[in-house]
């Protein structure tokens, strides 16, 4: 497997993990409030990574030496991204929310082009993004009717777009400024501290939860924590690889709604395939395959490191 194929393989693995989040979050929020659930999830996630990092003295020294990156990642990726995402999704219809979330590769491409001169918006990239968003729209339209009418729904759209901008900016900063920073240290610190802050904010904002919770809640919480720990650590590692462009890596996030729809067919009673959804899946898959096969050039491969 070449370095580029290796990067693509692990990017797809991370996106497959993230695609399970929506169903699990939906189950968890039946028993918990958004910020409390998110805070608890990320605290546990950061602690899960901790034993696999480096010895405590080196850990503290690395965080101290790269504190600006750690704080920026924590604020953008954990606090802003997930607080805006959870609150925004609570205000908009599911189909509309899915489309706005699905626009993340476009937002990332624009942010990356503004922050990184070498990560420009090429014609191939723009075409892939357009087809990808078209596919997301078709998948979402096939599952639920669109609706946008109230001020609350418009506010929800703005919040989700804000979450996309926050995570895109975080991705570019990690790519630009994390050389010499262990990705496990970065993900462990940003997730655990960010999760703790979300948890503390949730206490006055949402109240304190009382009473026992069912095993289903704890199972999805542990899965979401593990998924975040693995996927974010892996994604930060991929962003550090020489020659990897943030915008191109984020194109693979278009597969998240594809896998999410398939999981809903398997797990959610009453959901079944329809022609709009299947067509949207085909468009996304075709555009990604076409883009990455046309850009699979020997020189590009040489510039990538398997990390």
How are the SSEs placed, and which strands pair?
Elements: H1 3-19, H2 21-28, H3 34-49, H4 56-65, H5 67-89, H6 94-102, H7 104-115, H8 123-143, H9 151-177, H10 183-206, H11 215-240, H12 246-250, H13 255-267, H14 275-294, H15 298-302
Helix pairs in contact: 1-11, 1-13, 2-11, 3-5, 3-10, 3-11, 5-9, 5-10, 6-8, 6-9, 7-9, 8-14, 10-11, 13-14
Task: Provide a brief overview of the structure.
This protein has 307 residues and is mainly α. 77% of the residues lie in helices and 0% in strands.
Describe it.
This protein has about 300 residues and is mainly alpha-helical. The protein has one domain. The chain is built from 15 helices and no strands. The longest helix is centred in the middle third of the chain and has 27 residues, at about 150-175. It is globular and about 50 Å long. It starts with a helix and ends in a 5-residue tail after the last helix. The relative contact order is 0.21. Residues about 300-305 have low confidence and may be disordered.
**Which percent bin holds the helix content?**
over 70%
Alpha plus pi helix count: 15
**What's the count of strands?**
0
The gross shape turns out to be: globular
Q: How many domain units?
A: 1
User: DSSP strand (E) fraction?
Assistant: under 5%
CA-based gyration radius: 19 Å
Classification by helices and strands:
mainly alpha
Give the topology string: H per helix, E per strand.
HHHHHHHHHHHHHHH
Q: Extract low-pLDDT stretches.
A: 298-307
Largest sheet, strands/sense/barrel: none
Average per-residue pLDDT, rounded, comes to 83
């Amino acid at each position: 497997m070449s370095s580029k194929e290796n990067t693509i393989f692990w990017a797809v693995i991370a996106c497959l993990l993230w695609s399970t989040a929506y169903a699990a979050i939906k189950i968890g929020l039946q028993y918990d409030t958004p910020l409390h659930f998110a805070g608890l999830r990320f605290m546990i996630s950061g602690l899960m990574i901790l034993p696999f990092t480096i010895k405590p003295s080196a850990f503290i020294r690395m965080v101290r030496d790269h504190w600006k990156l750690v704080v920026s990642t924590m604020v953008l990726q954990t606090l802003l991204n997930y607080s805006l995402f959870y609150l925004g999704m609570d205000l908009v219809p599911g189909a509309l929310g899915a489309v706005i979330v699905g626009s993340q590769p476009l937002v990332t491409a624009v942010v990356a082009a503004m922050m990184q001169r070498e990560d420009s918006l090429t014609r191939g990239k723009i075409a892939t993004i357009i087809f990808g968003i078209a596919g997301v729209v078709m998948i979402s339209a096939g599952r639920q009717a669109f609706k946008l009418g109230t001020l609350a729904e418009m506010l929800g759209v703005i919040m989700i777009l804000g979450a996309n901008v926050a995570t895109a900016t975080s991705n570019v900063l990690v790519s630009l400024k994390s050389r010499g920073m262990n990705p496990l240290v970065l993900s462990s610190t940003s997730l655990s501290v960010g999760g703790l802050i979300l948890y503390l904010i949730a206490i006055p904002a949402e109240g304190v939860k009382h009473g026992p919770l069912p095993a289903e809640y704890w199972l999805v919480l542990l899965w979401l924590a593990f998924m975040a720990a693995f996927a974010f650590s892996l994604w930060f590692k991929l962003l550090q690889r020489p020659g990897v462009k943030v915008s191109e890596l984020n194109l693979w996030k278009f597969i998240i709604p594809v896998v999410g729809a398939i999981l809903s067919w398997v797990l959610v009673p009453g959901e079944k395939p329809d022609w709009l959804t299947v067509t949207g899946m085909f468009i996304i898959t075709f555009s990604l395959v076409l883009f990455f096969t046309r850009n699979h050039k020997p020189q590009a491969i040489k510039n990538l490191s398997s990390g």
